[in-house]
Amino acid sequence: MGFKEYYRAFKAYTDIYSKEYQRRIEELKPHLLRFMKRKGKVLDLACGVGGFSFLLEDHGFEVMGLDIDEEMIKKATEYAEEKNSKVKFIVGDARELSFEDETFDYVLFLGNTTVHFLPKDLSEVFKEVKRVLKKDGVFLMNFVDMRGLLPRIRMGTIVGEEYWISKVTIDEEEKTALIEYKSERDSFRVRFVIWGKTAVELLAKLYFIPIESVKLDEVSYLNVYKK
Ligand code: SAM
């Protein structure tokens, strides 16, 4: 709910040339490359507009990007044309992938995408990731410890240059947060699923073997898994 407005409002996810998007790339790049020494086939799952797909193509990987949102894939495809990129972008659902078993050397799930998925859905995503990964494949997942961030969300800390949080409603069981953002011009609401680090890791452990968890800042992580 409300994700279209959210992504329209925050360039960090939709404008690969913005300083916010570039900052995310610079933060993750050295860590990704450290765990991706061997070249191979990459699935950028929930790729958005594809900034990380292009990064890995530039480093010699064969990349495919998949996202459920047609607008995201349209923009990623436009960027690809502009960059003369060979990355193939397709519309699809991470919970039900159309690829054969053991297709990819790496699956990336970056940019705090967990906020889109209720536990049952994230479980389906992990199951599919495991299926499409090759035997010695690696799963790299970047997420924010939303539970750790909850006190700051509750305080309605100002975010970005244009939008601020004007209202936060957290459901009784603290499973989702309905956040209202406002700017001088407009307002919108978006519902995030609240995933804490422990919950993400417990669920992931049902499907994968942990290799390493890299702490990127106070609340965000890159977790690396094998089958
Ligand atoms: N990974 C990209 C990045 O780091 O820039 C995009 C991250 S963005 C926070 C989350 C993305 O997940 C959105 O582009 C959204 O459309 C996509 N998404 C949400 N549900 C999905 C699903 N079921 N299958 C595939 N993509 C999904």
Short recap of the structure:
With 227 residues, this protein is of the alpha/beta class. It has seven helices and ten strands.
Key terms:
single chain, 227 residues, alpha/beta, Rossmann fold, 2 domains, seven-stranded mixed sheet, three-stranded antiparallel sheet, 7 helices, 10 strands, binds S-adenosylmethionine, transferase, SAM-dependent_MTases_sf
Question: How would you describe what is shown here?
Answer:
By secondary structure, the chain is of the alpha/beta class. Strands 3-2-1-4-5-10-9 form a seven-stranded mixed beta sheet, sandwiched between helices. A three-stranded antiparallel beta sheet has the order 6-7-8. It is globular. The mean pLDDT is 94. It has two domains: 174 residues, Rossmann fold (3-Layer(aba) Sandwich); 43 residues, no CATH class. It binds S-adenosylmethionine.
Bound ions, cofactors and other small molecules, one mention each: S-adenosylmethionine
Number of individual domains? 2
**Order of strands across the biggest sheet?**
3-2-1-4-5-10-9
| CATH architecture assignment of the largest domain | 3-Layer(aba) Sandwich
Q: Any low-confidence stretches, pLDDT <50, length ≥5?
A: none
Organism: Thermococcus aggregans
InterPro entries: Methyltransf_25, SAM-dependent_MTases_sf
Pfam families: Methyltransf_25 (PF13649)
Keywords: Methyltransferase, Transferase
